[in-house]
């Protein structure tokens, strides 16, 4: 009786890590050609399908030369094996600083709830470097800002204040202030002073209707709010360039538990008809805390979404490449391993390899119209500050290089600062409160 020949195992990389330089690859190739594979590769199992934890290049070269490649099985869960793969590469290879930071960033995306010291120990790097990479990811909304993280003892600890931003040189601080114009007063009056067709982009987080007890910041009834916003939208359309656009960030509120106010949707419908709604876009704050309505006795959900009303011509400027989603290497590796034809529940089908190749060519995947960006812990002293990561995202997307940005409700200046950080040649802010204009000037100067 004949026995079936045992199928050769199939190998694939557990992670996509930075490639070897030409010199490193040639050196490794020559070493294996003369001596064979001296250091066994590390795999996750002895099954027919094996993932290479460490030694992918050694395996490729050995196969090309027809040499045997010794291997050692290291079992563990996927998270542990991915961490091991990163640690081994960081310890052995001559990586550039950006490559090292990318590996650390991938680890932070997978385990953002671990403390910086724990991640540093896992990867064999310094914890200040981990903190710096974390701050970069949090600033653009690629990982959540968590109030608590898990330490090496398994206990949770309150997160620190993060890495302080470096102080800008005096010349740069002066140049930033010179590129900003701040107006104090009613934005309706101040907007009329701006010449038509001179602004590239308007991004603003206006006060909301019926939002706080009488006498506090931003209090305005629905009728007056609609009158204000109709005037603002009309003026914004006048002063924008033909391919310019305006974004108004708004959050609905309620009359009482279970009865929503409709002013936001009334404004959206009016603005869309009077001008043009480019696309429906929403900002989701995944770090939103439960409100009173989320208690069991009321049974409502926690409010966590704001509407970004994006107005402009259908062909208004936008740079999709600047806001592509860039998955971690582990997700990219999984995605490449699953390139088969996919069929959705609705019956539509697509080929994953086509999507994957397109994403690789562009440097990321198309962003969704729901932006998952947690609120920032830094409110710059303003009671309704816009999170910097949200301001940064919109500036990257709709502000052309060297463009002029306007925020008619600038408050503490977050949007203006983000505009300068993203290449605006000039930013203009308007607010009726002098104390907030002073905050804005300080934020812009200090960055």
Strand content: 15-25%
Q: Can you identify the CATH superfamily of the largest domain?
A: Vaccinia Virus protein VP39
Instruction: Outline the biggest β-sheet.
Output: 8 strands, mixed
From the spread of the alpha carbons, the general shape counts as: elongated
Assign the structural class, choosing from mainly alpha, mainly beta, alpha/beta, alpha+beta, or little secondary structure. Answer: alpha/beta
Task: Indicate the CATH topology of the largest domain.
Answer: Rossmann fold
Number of domain units: 3
| Highest-level CATH class of the largest domain | Alpha Beta
- In order across it, which strands form the biggest sheet? 7-18-17-8-9-13-12-16
Known CATH architecture of the largest domain: 3-Layer(aba) Sandwich
Q: How far is the first residue's CA from the last residue's CA?
A: 78 Å
Any idea what the radius of gyration is?
27 Å
In short:
The protein has 447 residues and is α/β, with parallel strands linked by helices. Helix content is 38%, strand content 19%.
Describe the protein's architecture and organization:
It is a single chain. The chain has three domains: 10-78, Conserved hypothetical protein from pyrococcus furiosus pfu- 392566-001, ParB domain, CATH 3.90.1530; 96-158, Arc Repressor Mutant, subunit A (Orthogonal Bundle), CATH 1.10.10; 170-338 and 358-446, Rossmann fold (3-Layer(aba) Sandwich), CATH 3.40.50.150. Helix content is 38%, strand content 19%. It is built from 15 helices and 18 strands. The protein has helices spanning 22-35, 56-65, 78-92, 97-110, 116-123, 127-139, 170-178, 187-191, 222-239, 263-274, 329-337, 352-362, 388-398, 414-421, 434-446; strands at 10-13, 41-43, 49-54, 71-73, 148-150, 156-158, 180-184, 199-204, 240-250, 254-256, 259-260, 277-284, 305-312, 341-343, 349-351, 370-372, 404-407, 426-431. Strands 7-18-17-8-9-13-12-16 form an eight-stranded mixed β-sheet. Strands 1-3-2-4 form a four-stranded mixed β-sheet. The protein has a two-stranded antiparallel sheet with strand order 5-6. Helix 9 (222-239) links the parallel strand 8 (199-204) and strand 9. It is elongated.
